[in-house]
Design a protein that fits this description.
Amidase_domain; Lysozyme-like; Muramoyl-pentapeptide Carboxypeptidase, domain 1; hydrolase; alpha/beta; cell wall biogenesis/degradation; NAMLAA_amidase_2; EC 3.5.1.28
Length: 226
């Protein structure tokens, strides 16, 4: 189901980031219509419906318009270098709910296919909320990032991977760890912590650097070798 909302990627741009979103609309049909509406000026490369059906809207070689103002690991304008997947879910404004097993299986298979085609490191498999933490909350705390990581898509640090950092105030430690992971550093710390928690500590999304959040931050940094 092609979308007209696409254009050329910049010359020589490498595809090295995979961004996962939820649609955040009342129905999949409504979301797909918007992603294909020239007046909306938004799109994604793929849509995964709740029954596991996968639709391609934009070829991977082309730039889709899904990330908006975005930053990750020193990169900005991530539409230039990313592939975007919209996952049908009403989101926090329309009755946020768990993602069905068939849908998650289809997302996992699609991600693995994309990762086989492009040199995307695991840390660059990100949520929309990671790359735009002051604007976005998707795909949110009900999304099964842990299950994806167990199947080779992205990273998942266990709280036991590292102790909470010692020798510095919790806030200072958290800021340094968030920067090492790849979050932008010019936003309030609670905003960045909440984004991290939505992805890597979904049981508690409050923007507070408690011991488990610090341990997961440190664990992820250790996985990166930073």
């Amino acid at each position: 189901m092609p979308s007209p909302n696409q254009d050329d990627r910049p010359a020589g741009a490498a595809i090295d980031t995979l961004v996962l979103h939820y649609t955040g609309m009342r129905s999949g049909a409504e979301a797909i219509a918007r992603l294909r509406d020239p007046a909306a000026r938004v799109s994604s490369h793929y849509v995964v419906e709740e029954d596991g059906a996968v639709l391609r809207l934009v070829p991977e070689a082309r730039r889709a318009w899904h990330a908006g103002i975005s930053h990750w690991r020193g990169m900005a304008a991530l539409n230039d270098r990313s592939i975007g997947i919209e996952i049908v879910n009403p989101g926090h404004d329309w009755g946020y709910r768990p993602f069905p097993a068939l849908q998650m299986a289809a997302v996992c298979d699609l991600c693995l296919e994309i990762l086989a085609r492009h040199p995307i490191p695991p840390i660059n498999v990100v949520a929309h909320s990671d790359i735009a933490p002051d604007r976005k909350a998707d795909p949110g705390e009900l999304f099964d990032w842990e299950g994806l990581a167990a199947n080779g898509v992205g990273l998942w640090p266990a709280a036991a991977d590292a102790p909470a950092p010692a020798g510095a105030p919790a806030g200072a430690s958290a800021a340094a760890l968030l920067s090492a992971i790849g979050y932008r550093t010019d936003l309030p710390l609670p905003v960045l912590l909440a984004a991290f928690q939505r992805h890597w500590r979904p049981a508690r999304v409050d923007g507070v650097a408690d011991a488990e959040t610090l341990a997961r931050l440190a664990g992820l940094v250790r996985m990166l070798g930073a």
